[in-house]
Amino acid sequence: MNKEIDQKNEITTSPTKGDFRNRRTFFFVIFLLAIAIAFVATEIVRYSRNSPNQHHNWINSKLLLANIPMGALESMQSRNMVARNRLNLHAWHGHNEILLTKVFKLGEMQFRTRIEEDSYLVIIFDKTAEHYSALRLSRNPRYPSALINADSTGQFSSKTAISDIQITDGWHTIKLKKKDGTLHLQIGDHVVGKWKSRIVDEQIVGFRSGAGTTIVDDVILYDPNGREILSESFRNAFRSIALFFFVLFAIAVLIGFLFAAAYHWKRSIRDTGFVIIMIQGVTLILLTIFLIFDFFHWSHQYHFDTFVPLEVHSDWNEKSTKTEAWRSGLFDNFETFDQFNSKYESKDVTLLVRFLLLEKGPPYQHGALQIKRSSVPDKSHFFEVPDDEQTLLKGRSTFPTSSLRTMFIGTSQTWGEGAATRGGQFAFRLHDRMRKKVAADVELITINAAIRGSDASFLIQRYLDRLHLLEPHLVIVNLSNNDSYKDPEKFKASLKSLVEFNQTRKIKTLFSLEANSPETDTRQITALREFHQIMQSVADTYGVICVDLNTHLASELVYDSGFIWWDYVHLTSHGHATAADFLMDSIVREISLPAIQTLGSDDIGARKIMNADQ
Known about the structure:
This protein is α+β, with helices and mostly antiparallel strands. It contains 14 helices and 23 strands. The longest helix is centred in the N-terminal third of the chain and has 32 residues, at 17-48.
């Protein structure tokens, strides 16, 4: 700094080259820190806004079903499924099937995967409206690695065991290549299998898992000519550059304001710059800590106040925790930087639905009775009516004397969550099977009185209050899951009141032990068994037939006959068909109904799976 004497004999100072150098260094450090803060802030916003909805090339096929099961909407809207910027197939109850929304001819598929113990990954390809093929890579001995062909319901038409594949801990690079009707599977640097394969021009590909931890990342797809169709890292990078410069501009404006304020208040530029650098340093450290915490912990959590089995909320209006509501509310301000705000805006999803020939039908009325009559052909397979007393009496007056009326009492499994088509739930699949057994002059009427999210006490009281006015001949009770975390004595009392009521009116009752996936959490299975035992004890006391749907679906010939589960309790279309077969066989074998022709069980329930073990 040079000193000079002005005309008033006052000493003034003028900046030296060293001062300018120091200032340039200050401004350079401030600029670098501003860039670092803008980068980290951009990553925080992009990561906080990362959900499957931001990746329009993929959709959870649960959303394509007529009866969408729990967690399907939430899986696309929340962060769990793409936490840590990778596809977590086990999130939201597992058993997810994530499909690519593009229709193309597959040449090669490459990706990385991590399959934990007792888990498996299913690679889906050649998927059309009628059938698909799949490779199951497994670390679960009950579901071994296999090459699979399946129909549109998920039932296996063939299953070829692959015994020489060893999947270990850690990440593996998988390559699946189709060439000249041959399928090549490569794990790491080694080709581990070659099989004859269908030649399918237009197809869908995707991934599916069971309940266990299964992760997919860095997916690259090529057509037969080697042209890249897709490269997907599951990182939310949409409009990141625009967001980065927006944040950087905001930081620059703030820094400029601080320097202007310092000049106004005659503060030293050097001191002001030092304070700004300190603020920037602290801000950068705090933002980095938050990003690390969010990346490795927060984004994996299910942030809801109310209790739900398996600690996963479904779609019954559970509220977010206050902390999560604050976080999401803050980052909702950056919606304008998203690719788009709704999955259903994607034209690819519309094309996918058309390609797979999917039809959803009209929306359901929650709590309404679903009724199917053999004398009323209906394109939607059944019609719905409210369960008020006046409507029930009016409906009963339309039933002919020569009719066989079956009523189902249950919760979401019985209601039909997971059925791909409207009317595809096992209650109405059973109706179709019974139609073949009922005399031609007898009208078959099936009433599905199940309600999602309900329990035994509510359902049975509803039946005792008014549903009995429909005068069913047979009441099928499929319960346990929603009661398994409630009062067992109340559950038992409800079952007793139903049986006693039916016996005084000579209405036959059949108990079905509601099923769970064999992969279900051990705590849930333990609780379920207690309530199964209660149903069995009530059945034994009153001489009621009790059939074990849970054991049947987990039996050796059934559990791996196809993809049966969408989660721990809701069935796929194949699962609903299998349950209907079992109940039909049980009714023919165990219950005497005058209108049922005694033709024997024929081939009911005898679905044969071709095991072409090679």
